[in-house]
Every structure is written in C-alpha cells, then in structure tokens.
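This entry is set out below.
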Amino acid sequence: MYDLIIVGGGPAGLTAAIYAARGGLKTVVVESMMPGGQAAATEKIENYPGFPEGITGFDLMNAFYKQALNQGAEFIFEPVLHLDLQKEVKTVVTGQRTLEAKAVIIAAGSKPRSLGVAGEDSFHGRGVSYCATCDGAFYKGKKVAVIGGGNAALEEGAYLTKFASEVYIVHRRKEFRASQIAVQRAEENPKVKFVLDSVVQEIAGNDKVQKIILKDVGSDAVEEIEVDGVFIYIGTEPNTKFTSEYFEVDQYGYIITDALLKTNKQGVYAAGDIRNTPLRQVATAVGDGALAAVQVEKYLAEMD
C-alpha cells in the first residue's frame, strides 16, 4: 500500500510528488501520457521564474520528472479507469493494476476544448491538431490556420511560422484576449495574417484538410480559406471524465476545493488546472502541488 497516489503527472502532480516523496511518503504518480502533461508540449515557457531566456515546456517538465524520481517517487504510465474514494483506504484502478493508498491527490489537469464544428473530429490527425509543438513540422511550406484569440493561439501561431508559409489566426472578436507582447509579436511576423470577427463553420476536405469555411460575425458573409492544417486553441476544459461522478464540481466541471485544496472526499485533494482556480499557469500549478502534498502529510499524521 502507498501513502499517496497522485493522479496526473503535470506540473501540479510532479511538484506534489517531489514534496511528498521528500517528506518520506511512499508516493506513486499515475499518468496516462508523458510526464508534464500539456505543459510539456508548450514550445516555450517565458513566465516561469528562474529562466530569463525562457525554457521549452519539455525541458522544464523533464527536470520536474527527474527531480521527483530522485526523491523516490514511483511512476506508472497507464490510464486511470476507476476510483473508489469512499473508504479510509482509497483505490485507483488502471488497465493493468489496482493501487491502494491512504490519500489521493487529483492533478489530472485540463485538455484542449474542441471547436464543435463539422469536420473537426473526422479530420483529427489528418489536418486538425491541438498541439503545434507536436505537429508543426508536418506543415513545412504549407498554409495553416490557428483558431483562437488567447496567448496560446498567438504564441503557437508564431511558432508555426517556423514551418508554414502562411499562418491565418482566426478569432471571433476584433480584440485579442492575449497579452500585448504576444499580439505585438504576431503583428510583426510577416507570415501571420489575422482574420477577425469570424467564426469557423466547417473544416472541409477529402482525405485530409483542404479548407476552412468561415462566417463573418457581423454580416454573416461566408468566406473560404484554403489551408492544409487547422490548429485549435480556444481554451481548455477539465480532465474530469473519470472524476466528475466522485466530486462536487462547478458549472464548468472543475473540482471544487477549499483553500487547503480539500475536496468533498476525506483524504482526497485536488491540485492544478483540474480545480476551481482563477488562474491556470505552470507557476500556480506548482504552488497547488506543494500545498496539496503538505496537506496530505498533515492528514496522514493526524490519522496515526
């Protein structure tokens, strides 16, 4: 039996693992993908303290992972299928094993929000992507569209100009939600073209993406733009597919916690992007992970 099972190996989960293992708790992290979660797929992180020139998400998360290993945390790379959190001993079931622990931290993060238009699902992997860092190199010399108006859309759009001949940034409003520096960098890039006040109606093609069909928000005029790839960055939603039935969640599906990250289940905490927090950044996830681990230590000490 473990002292602590951490579900999710992103910034919050990895930080919790470092703190818990260093504190002497027998700790295991269960992660379905690679260490670091979405942060690991970020081309460059410029707002995490300690890196004046920025650092790739992969390098930062790999350092977190190595530090957790060095402190003695174990890792299991399998998807979680079921949780049993009602009893004093908690159970986490994956496809290959059943794990037990006295406490659990849910740090499963968030996932890209889908656009919900025709062609999005059918062309996923054939021109539709949610990760420029993963798939950008496939579009060398080609035209791509980036859908969204936040920091992720503009930053990943700028990244795609390393490969693509043209990058259309499609946003439903006149003004971007992104930071001023992200907007300025995109405006100064000759490969970037803005398509504002427009929403995607359809992603179309034959065996792969060939064009996007847009509608002007004001006039309802329809426009087609030929592109080879579509990268969707319209925000995220909580990875609570397997957790929402166990916890109190807010209107958006994020797990509700108190100030000490306790959920409505005794001995179960939530940390990072999966919980109802006003800011979702690597830095805030790290703080959550540290706090959750310390609270678990206190909880287990009280049990003894």
Observations:
- The domain at 2-112+236-303 is CATH 3.50.50.60 (FAD/NAD(P)-binding domain).
- DSSP finds seven helices and 17 strands in the chain.
